[in-house]
Give the backbone structure.
Amino acid sequence: LKRCIADLQNLYARNVPLSISTPLVAVRESVARSVDSERVDSKASTLWLPSWMSHILDASTEASSVFSALSEKEDVGEDGEAKAALQERVSMSAAGITTVWTANRKTCVRISAVLLPEHILAWMDDYAEALESVLHRQRVSAELVGSSGGTLEGCLKEVEQQFQHLQAQAAQDASSDFCRSDGSPAILCGMSVARGSRAVLLNATGSAWSLQDSYKVVTSEVKSSEKDSENSSEKVPEWMRPNILSGFQLAASAGPLCEEPLRGVALILHGCQELGSEEPHGSDKPALGAAAASPYGPLSGQVMVAAKDACRYCIFRRGFSRICEAMLSLEVHCEQEMLGKVYAVLGKRRAKVQDE
């Protein structure tokens, strides 16, 4: 922008007064849908870090974190025991699933990032104000009321139904990234549209964690009946859900590349794991008290930090990180003899001429 303004003031519009304001559209962070295998070194680590973050490979401000890239066979298993070395706080599998342990190495979350389909992103852009009102301000929106009678619970149901409909359309031409291991679609449990972000959190763990559960609008009777049916196989404990959602919101509003909001990114929660737990966990887990305080702070805060780091570092999958720039659509009028010079200027600015 500065170079364009300098060219106008010094070369092409010397005597024309210009009114210059700050840029209205900033850059956004995203991921690629797929990358050619030729562009990625198969021998290189799956976890890629920019040069300005290379210092955290050796040490980190939180519990001397160690980063590594693991193969799919070395990833964390589902039998309650960690197959990866516990001293490696952040690791990434060959499939791009990032595993982040808490500072005390007792709990971990596993998250991956995929690109949202274009029609889902367009739907979020069209209903951005309504979604922000419902999700971030906890207010009813007339655009998302549907047949609910004007309640916040009805608006959340309408958001879930519309997203499920769009998700079913995307399942026809997309891979199994939006599905669980059994083939069923992942459940929407979080969404961020604040500060220009366009990101969703999908639950692929098999637990009944929906968008309504995230915003506490389900009645206590319904929640207790669901809890009784989930205790035997729940993979995301109820006490952990608000902390994971808070970490997702923080990561969506400030990405890892340049601290800009994420756009068009679906963060998929593949599972959570706790070491040394022998009894089922509920919302009144005693470990949230003094037993979990330790030198690293409460366990709830550690889970939130781990979820935020997992959402941020899964963007660093080698070859998939992207920065989205804004594009300006304009019409240029010039004389015939100046056409070549105009083309030369547009070529330096990476412009695409659509019509003459």
Remarks:
- Residues 5 and 165 are 45 Å apart (CA to CA).
- Residues 152-170 form the longest helix (19 residues).
- DSSP finds nine helices and nine strands in the chain.
